[in-house]
Amino acid sequence: MARAIMLQGTSSNVGKSVLAAALCRIFYRAGYRVAPFKSQNMALNSGATPDGGEMGRAQLVQAYAAGVQPRVEMNPVLLKPTAHARSQVILLGRPVGNLGAREYHGHFNQELWQHVEAAYATLAREFEVIVIEGAGSPAEVNLKAREIANMRVAKMAGAPVLLVADIDRGGALAAIVGTLELLDPDERELVAGLIINKFRGDLDLLQPALDFLERKTGKPVLGVIPFLAHGLPEEDSVVLEQAAGRPTAAGEVEIAVIKIPCIANFTDFDALEREVGVNLRYVEDKEALGQPDLIILPGSKNTIGDLLWLRQRGLEEAIKDLVGRGTPVVGICGGYQMLGQEIADPGHVETDHDGIAGLGLLPVRTVFQPTKATNLVQGQVTGTGPFLGPLQGLEVKGYEIHMGASYLVAGQPAFKITRRGNKPVDIDDGALSPDGLIWGTYIHGIWDNDPFRHQVLATLRARRGLPARESGLDFTADQERRFDALATVVARHLDLKRLAAIMGLERPLAGDSLGA
């Protein structure tokens, strides 16, 4: 049976997901067969597994950090919030319904526990180490009796718990002491250590507080992790709210992503954001839109609701005005659906609306369906025009996650899907405006394809009259470098010898292989 360690937080967004990824890479580099696990995740950033299941983006990232293929057992329950305090429930990679918070926490999540236990047992048989991530806080007293994500999981797995607090937001010591105080005695006993995360400053000045914390709680502080600009894919759109836009410098291409309320899979744009010479901004109103070189409409978990929001904010009018002046627009998944002529929802899969007119910028009609497409895909560029024309025939990879089907009513597709999972297919995807300046696709991760991204950015630079810039970004290699750099920093600031003892590991964690 696998050894396990669990990260729980004093609240959401304390950095558990990133620390879990770091631990996965630390164990992997120490020679352990390691897997991540999060029983219940609430996030709009998700992805597809090789066998076509859907799981949270954070656990996908952690699996890659662990050097293993992602699988739905690593995140058996995924909640994807929609409108009106409801969420789509994904169980072992497949949607099983849309529920309100009262209904879900009242009884439905208890029915899922057996699946959580089975998923963990499967991983525990196949791996040596399991890095478990909790959800929110274990001290939410209104939910604690029926939760399936924190202390109940720790008890099931026999996992010691490391309690993580975010010192950057302030009140970290009080959050730790208060959390421990609200736990039951047997739960408090499971907490084997404390981690202070996102620290900026002089550790010597903090030391008296750490000494007090250990005396007050009786729990050792295993590490003080510095504030890290890790650049790994994020789980929660709260990071977009915290990120302030910056003015575009001379020689930069400016890309505006419309930050719709139910934005999903904004990790699609990580590769663009890492490119030198690109300023990628998230905008919520027409004043902030400005005059970018490219507008992107991202994925959405509530396409009709987000399209109505777009109209109410005056962004539809602003986008169409810029289109009239030659600004290119790209739509990904839900954004692609918005660009079409009509979105029909006869079965009320998403909202109470029977349908809604789209932006009318692409010759596409979308019909929502109760079945969900979740696939890893490969394909080719087939579109024409200034952006896709130079890329015709280029092989691209990505994934699909969508509820609707879109049908061309005129014109040509932008891509052709040639493989879904391991199955060869021949399916047209996306659409293209007659001038080639507007296009859309269901392929998430399209920007992660280096040649594709480099050529589109080269075209944008040429349209602006900017000098050509040689892009050296290999996105996959950059991801691996970031995993290793993250693991090295965390290893240097974490008591790995003590961690190994807490877990009862037979092989040490410290050593040159960790960069420690």
TrEMBL record:
GO molecular function, one example?
A: ABC-type vitamin B12 transporter activity
- List the pathway annotation: Cofactor biosynthesis; adenosylcobalamin biosynthesis
Q: Enumerate the InterPro entries for this protein.
A: Class_I_gatase-like, CobQ/CobB/MinD/ParA_Nub-bd_dom, CobQ_GATase1, CobQ_N, CobQ_synth, GATase_3, P-loop_NTPase
User: Which part of the chain is the CobB/CobQ-like glutamine amidotransferase domain?
Assistant: 254-451
Which residues are catalytic? C333 (nucleophile), H444
Keyword tags: Cobalamin biosynthesis, Glutamine amidotransferase
Kindly give the PROSITE patterns that the UniProt entry links to this protein: GATASE_COBBQ
Q: Name one GO biological process term.
A: cobalamin biosynthetic process
Query: Where in this chain does the record put each CobQ/CobB/MinD/ParA nucleotide binding domain?
Result: 5-227
Q: Do the record's keywords include Ribosomal protein?
A: no
Q: Which family does it belong to?
A: Belongs to the CobB/CobQ family. CobQ subfamily.
User: What NCBIfam families does the entry give?
Assistant: cobQ (TIGR00313), PRK00784.1 (NF001989)
Function summary: Catalyzes amidations at positions B, D, E, and G on adenosylcobyrinic A,C-diamide. NH(2) groups are provided by glutamine, and one molecule of ATP is hydrogenolyzed for each amidation.
The protein's matches in HAMAP family, at most eight in alphabetical order, are given as: CobQ (MF_00028)
What name does this protein carry? Cobyric acid synthase
Organism per entry: Neomoorella glycerini
Q: Which gene encodes it?
A: cobQ_2
